[in-house]
Amino acid sequence: MLHPIFEEASNVIKEEYPNENQVVFARVDCDQHCHRAHHSYTTTEESFLIMIHHTGKGLSRTSMKLIFLFNLLADIAQRYRISKYPTLKLFRNGMMMKREYRGQRSVKALADYIRQQKSDPVQELHDLAEITTLDRSKRSIIGYFEQKDSENYRIFERVANILHDDCAFLSAFGAVSKPERYSGDSIIYKPPGHSAPDMVYLGSMISFDGTYNWIQDKCVPLVREITFENGEELTEEGLPFLILFHMKEDTESLEIFQNEVARQLISEKGTINFLHADCDKFRHPLLHIQKTPADCPVIAIDSFRHMYVFGDFKDVLIPGKLKQFVFDLHSGKLHREFHHGPDPTDTAPGQQVQDVASSPPESSFQKLAPSEYRYTLLRDRDEL
Question: Which of 10-24, 40-54, 267-281 has the least mean pLDDT?
């Protein structure tokens, strides 16, 4: 038996999408691990996944399967890095989306969410002049196709369904797109900023992997902004933070940081999250490291147990300096020096080694992680 909220939500959605292949509700029993978990909610039937699978070709034949999996199995939780419940994950074309559903567990909210997922993620252009009105503060992907009913566009649409939260997707067809189709269908990326040059996709248009990887690389920046709205989502990725605190109008420091991360730390992508934060909005974390907005720009690592401060911001331009800071986190040096003071190799010749511990402040961004008052947490997070 489904939870009454989801039972009613399923009935609402089924009225709009009566095809039995469009909306499917299912239940998975919990194993012993779930039963042992502390239940902060009145029911154990609030953990689920939402899976969306496109089986049609073209907009008119697009269909979805929504599968609510209650009482998560431990192996599913591990596979999809579920650390709390209730949790709702979204899958498209077999791929798990980064952003989980964090809205209300109400009939209206769930139904509205599903309707939103059914909407077309690609805006069709009817005149190329519309491109001049684009919001150039955002990333945009534009596809120029001879026909809408084509394999090239179907691949483009699949990618748009996955990455529409990260980029604006637009398309033009036939006579409208002809001026931009010099040698056939094409996809271009318009980065933020009016002066930034366009980039053209040179790979195979019918390769989903190639198209997806190229567009993802353009739409998901190496250095992302952390806000109070996405903080919980970022902490759940399970990676420590390397953060630049800067004033919102200080784009020069951000550009320097972005360039040095790309130059020194591209190999560390996947082991640490590169972020930037508004000094005014994140005054409290700055106070934790004895800084104020007047001290910005400031670089720090938050390991979810402690915060470690990089030296002078100007030192980021010293080749390898920022990379060594991250390596010291991974090697345990930052944590070790927290307990025992500087390593002997860092002392001057002839200087007596003293076992004097430093005292880095506790993690501040850990407080943005999922709250035990809203979720049942399956495991505690230690220092990463």
Answer: 40-54
pLDDT band at 320 (very low <50, low <70, confident <90, very high): very high
Specify the pLDDT at position 362. 59
Name the more confident of 137 and 254: 254
Dihedral angle of Cα 133, 134, 135, 138, to the nearest 10 degrees: -170
Distance CA 248, CA 280 (A): 8
**Residue 280: pLDDT band by 50, 70, 90 thresholds?**
very high
48-67 pLDDT, tens digit per residue, is 444 444 444 333 333 444 44
The Cβ of residue 334 has, within 10 Å, a number of other Cβ atoms equal to 20
Q: What is the pTM of this model?
A: 0.66
Sheet with 140-145, strands from edge to edge, namely 122-124, 168-173, 140-145, 186-190, 199-200
- Percent of the chain at pLDDT > 90 equals 40
User: Residue 227 has which token pair?
Assistant: 């806000």
